[in-house]
Amino acid sequence: MKRISLAAFVLSALINSGCSQNQWRTRGAATVDRYQPPAALVNSDMDASSPKSFDEDATSAAYGDDQTPYISLVSATDQNSYDENAPALASVSDGQHAVESSDNHAGMSLADFESLAFNNNPSIKELAATTQKAAGFRHQVGLQANPIFGYQGQQLADRNTDQHIAFVEQEFVTGGKLELNRCVMNEAVRAQLQELEAQKLRVATDVRVKFYEALAAQRRIQLIGDFRSVTEKGIKVAESRAAAGEDTRIDTLQATVQKNEVDLALQQAKIQFDAAWRGLVALTGSSYMEQSPLVGELPASMDQKDWHQLSAAIIGSSPEYAAAQTRVAQARAALRRQDVQATPNITVQFGAGVDNATNNGMMNLQVGAPIPVFNKNQGNISAAQAEFCRACLEVQRIEKSIQARLASVSSDYDSSLAAVTKYGQEILPNAAESLKLAELAYEAGETSFVQVLVARRTYFDSNLQYVQAQSQLAQASSKVDGYVLSGSLDTAIDNSGDDSLRGLTFSQQ
User: Fold this and answer.
1) Which of 1, 48, 65, 214 sits at 20 to 30 Å (Cα–Cα) from 284?
2) What are the structural domain ranges in the chain?
């Protein structure tokens, strides 16, 4: 009986030890909000300029002792993608509410639209969800195997010689596979964090580009409205002079044609503003917003840029480029992981029971491991090497893509800056003076009405071209500030991975 008691004690100790490896610890507060960001994760891991910001220590501090993933969707919608310690915006569920909370008389500014976009744009929340998914996989692939508890009966049909055994079995992972699993998925989480920062920049860039497009349309409406009053006055003057016999009916008809052209331009400008407004609303993720005036100024001048220096700076700090570099680190970690896959795990089984034939206790111990004779994980190692090469080439591709996009933007920036400078300093002043002199000469009878129409048309077209150049300059500058990232409503990049490494760890055949 002492042997049986000893065997039962040992069996109980093994069971408790095996189960404790995967025991879930009870949290101190049962009402933890799963959508509140841990301070360590928000402050340490969301730095877009540092691809090494996400590490084991920060993750442990953010997740807690049991490594349960807590990545907040709210933290991902922080309005300031450049200052991770800035306070998060209040959540806005619908764009109309945001309009009602602002000063409707003052209109909507660029900051208002950016605020709505960072809170409501679905792509940001989608990337935050993929980051949380990657963190969940990272947690899963590092878990130990559950112990197996069972019963075994022998010679049950042979009376008084039957044997009854209770056993516990545990597989012990060797070669540091679980730690390497976590390293691989840790890089996946880091890469998704960088993708999230890149998505914030895409949203900000698209909102700014569309805002300046709408602001230019609004400015054109104002200019055309002012010029329309000039053409109406010109028709009245032409009609009065025709009635007095000083001009012909042709002058009146030409003035009417010019007014009709201005009316058409006004109609087109309103259509363009309406389309740009709807585009802005779509980018913010809001369902509906009443049109309101836009508050902002188009740039009258900007500085020249050193594009070679700027290209190097963008590549060095772009979260898109940092994400590609992190994928290289992930591929390198995966290669190290595949190298140790052939190291056999050890399975230990211990059983204790009673033999009724001898009326004595009994204990069994069994230890086994697969022998890597045929399967040495050759295929997966080869595939991991190829993936590492592919990830390195992807870094080069993204670098060249950034350079190509920046080259295109630099052309728009420099040409529009030259146009803004030329129109603002020379063309517009000369056109305004020419119109003034033509009207004075016409009133004095020193020139024909055709010269007045030409001067008006020149002044009108010059102002519209100036606004167009200002809009293009503002949009190009926005793209540069956004690391030439755009496409905020394109399909989100989901490279969060899966938990297949865990299955590979416990299946060595």
Assistant:
1) 48
2) 2-24+61-74+88-505
